[in-house]
From TrEMBL, chain A:
InterPro entries: BPD_transp_1_N, MetI-like, MetI-like_sf
CDD domains: TM_PBP2
Species whose genome carries this gene: Jeotgalibacillus alimentarius
Annotated protein name in UniProt: Peptide ABC transporter permease
Keyword Transport: yes
Gene Ontology cellular-component terms listed: plasma membrane
GO biological process, one term: transmembrane transport
Keyword check for Cell membrane: yes
Keywords: Cell membrane, Membrane, Transmembrane, Transmembrane helix, Transport
From TrEMBL, chain B:
Topology class, membrane: Multi-pass membrane protein
Annotated keywords: Cell membrane, Membrane, Transmembrane, Transmembrane helix, Transport
Annotated ranges, domain ABC transmembrane type-1: 94-288
Any one Pfam family match given in the protein's UniProt record, by short name: BPD_transp_1
Entry similarity comment: Belongs to the binding-protein-dependent transport system permease family.
Transmembrane segments: 33-54, 98-124, 136-154, 160-179, 210-232, 268-288
GO biological process, one term: transmembrane transport
Source species, domain of life: Bacteria
Entry's Gene Ontology cellular component terms: plasma membrane
Signal peptide limits: none
Protein name as it appears in the record: Peptide ABC transporter permease
Length: 321, 301
């Protein structure tokens, strides 16, 4: 197991290098001068511009520039944002907690809702409640997240006024107080639900089908014959077996959350990584763009790795080596 | 009494003589939800592709006199902020959205099937190289790279072509993986050995013997993909990185809701595309479910 994990982590290194090369080339291919933002805009003297380009290394051969960029990564130097004039690392560090908070809340909400609905529907299949949950699931799978977000803002923010539709916290509150955290939770609630809708629907469906399937197995019949209470059969015997496959979904969720966060954060104007990414594209802030793209790609790789490893951990029948 | 007990046997007998495709067709035709969805989807496709014949209104003309009108007899769904008829734009937008979805699905399925079947059939080093490449493509966060790529090519080539190319380029990995695993299982059968041993060319074995046997999986996959790719197109267009703003598409029409005035006070501008998009995706999903069920020999219906 450990050997496999280490081998997979080592296998990630060439993949990351390859991705970094693609990201670098793409950033070079993007329209505009990726360093033009660092040159003083008030001084348009062509000679000065040429001098600056030379000093910033913009005239060096592409491989030299690439190795300088990657070398900076290893030394913790992620470049300077051409728009905000601050190190990209600071910019990302400022936004990252918001995105992590959003992602974690979304996962928690997904698990709570999916377990509640999945267990109910699995215990009472083909009843009215099950059909209602099934219908909700179909909607959850079919409605694109940005449409769900737009409808949510329209109904809950504008018409009912329950939930704020922008920002991550009420700016008037002091950080650290109870009200501050309450306000953060309030702001994150709707984006988190929208972001997790798809995962909730697929989890619920999976859990329901798995519980129904397991309830027909021999070990359930044995437990019933022994006189085990029904609730214990469902909550202990069946649940243990049905949760296992769900664990493996966690890794894939990381990848889904990344893509989902870009759209959701933009709609709710939630100041996170996804919003920073889109603004860096529109502002041609290439150093920021490159770092975020690398970060999201690396996260996707880690997500896939976690999925593969968990697969082997929860199901010993799958041999990883 | 005799008749009643004999009935199930009779229908059982009937299916025995039918080809798998005929059984699947019969199952699908009996699936009410899937049939209603197919009918709806077909209607949407036909009406939007016949848009120039359905309405005579001009989609590109900006009419300041008729800005943001509420739905009325003259404008069934009202007009948008530039005074253009929402209903007309909905039809033309459907044409673009469905076209992008179809084109992407075709390209993705074609490319994924080619890569997957070659990797699965040849195995060995060909398989490793192709699958490492597939993994490489799958490791890119989809939305991030579509946005970056479409920004690079923006203005260089026709916007719609680029969007289709970029979306397809990044989405074929899943199909390639599924087709490969199906081909791997299928090629162990004796009839493939027989075909190879009588001297069939690899291309013939793949096209004539292997692909028809994995076709049902490919069809089901392409339905799911179709829905997903329409969503991808409209999501990108909503963010402003998809179909060029000059061409109406459902996603472009929805991006009007980014203005809070439109969102809160003029729901007729953004609600129609939102609803039609959702119902279309829903019906494609139902068709996909129906097809999956129809091709599944274990399901009884």
């Amino acid at each position: 197991m450990l050997k496999y994990t280490i081998r997979r982590i080592i296998g990630m290194i060439p993949m990351l290098l390859l991705i970094s090369f693609v990201v670098f080339l793409l950033a070079k291919a993007m329209p505009g001068d990726s360093l033009s933002g660092e040159i003083d805009p008030n001084n348009t003297d062509p000679q000065y511009i040429e001098e600056m380009r030379e000093r910033l290394g913009y005239n060096d051969p592409i491989p030299v520039q690439y190795f300088r960029w990657v070398g900076g990564f290893f030394q913790g130097d992620f470049g300077t944002s051409t728009r905000y004039k601050v190190p990209v690392a600071d910019l990302v560090a400022e936004r990252l907690p918001n995105t992590i908070f959003l992602g974690v809340s979304s996962l928690v909400i997904t698990y709570i809702l999916a377990f509640a609905m999945g267990i109910y529907a699995g215990r009472k299949p083909y009843t009215l409640g099950d059909n209602l949950i099934g219908g909700l699931n179909y909607l959850g799978l079919a409605i694109p997240s940005f449409i769900a977000a737009v409808f949510a803002i329209y109904f809950f923010s504008f018409n009912l006024g329950w939930i704020p539709y922008s920002g991550s916290v009420d700016p008037t509150l002091q950080p650290g107080t109870f009200d501050y955290w309450l306000s953060r939770a309030h702001h994150v609630l709707m984006p988190a639900i929208v972001l997790g809708a798809l995962a909730t629907a697929s989890y619920t469906q999976f859990l329901r089908n798995d519980i129904i399937e397991n309830s027909r197995k021999d070990f359930v019949r044995t437990a019933r014959a022994k006189g085990t209470p029904t609730s214990k059969i469902y909550n202990v015997h069946i649940m243990r077996n049905s949760i296992i496959p769900l664990v493996t979904f966690l890794g894939f969720d990381i990848a889904t959350l990344i893509s989902g966060a870009i759209i959701t954060e933009t709609i709710f104007t939630y100041p996170g990584i996804g919003q920073l990414f889109l603004s860096s594209v529109t502002n041609r802030d290439y150093p920021t763009l490159m770092v975020i793209t690398m970060m999201l790609s690396a996260l996707t790789l880690v997500g896939n790795l976690i999925a593969d490893i968990l697969y082997g951990v929860v199901d010993p029948r799958i041999r990883l080596d | 009494m005799v008749n009643v007990t004999a009935d199930p046997n009779k229908s059982q007998e009937k299916t025995i003589n039918m080809s798998p495709w005929a059984i699947a067709r019969r199952k699908f035709l009996r699936n009410k939800l899937a049939m209603i969805s197919s009918f709806f989807l077909l209607t949407v496709i036909i009406v939007s592709f016949l848009a120039p014949y359905v309405t005579s209104a001009d989609i590109s003309k900006v009419n300041i006199m008729q800005m943001s009108l509420e739905p009325s007899n003259e404008h069934w769904l009202g007009t948008d902020k530039s005074g253009r008829d929402v209903f007309t734009r909905l039809l033309y937008g459907g044409r673009v959205s469905l076209l992008v979805g179809m084109a992407c699905t075709t390209l993705v399925v074609l490319f994924g099937t080619i890569v997957g079947s070659i990797a699965g059939f040849y195995g060995g080093i060909v398989d490793s190289v192709l699958m490492r490449f597939t993994d490489f493509v799958l490791n890119f966060p989809f939305l991030v790279f579509v946005i970056v790529l479409s920004t690079i090519f923006y203005g260089l080539v026709d916007g719609l072509t680029i969007l289709i190319a970029v979306i397809s380029l990044l989405s074929w990995g899943g199909v390639a993986r599924i087709v490969r695993s199906k081909i791997l299982a299928e090629k162990e059968n004796e009839y493939i050995l027989a075909a190879v041993s009588i001297g069939c060319k690899p291309s013939k074995v793949i096209i004539k013997h292997l692909l028809p046997n994995v076709l049902s999986t490919i069809i089901v996959q392409s339905t799911i993909l179709f829905a997903g790719l329409i969503v991808a197109e409209s999501g990108l267009s909503y963010l402003g990185f998809g179909v060029p703003q000059t061409i109406p598409s459902w996603g472009n029409m929805l991006s009007a809701s980014q203005e809070s005035d439109v969102l809160s006070n003029k729901p007729w501008i953004w609600m129609p595309p939102a609803i039609i998009l959702t119902v279309t995706i829903l019906s494609i999903n139902f068709i996909g479910e129906g097809l999956k069920d129809a091709f599944n020999p274990k399901s009884q219906r």
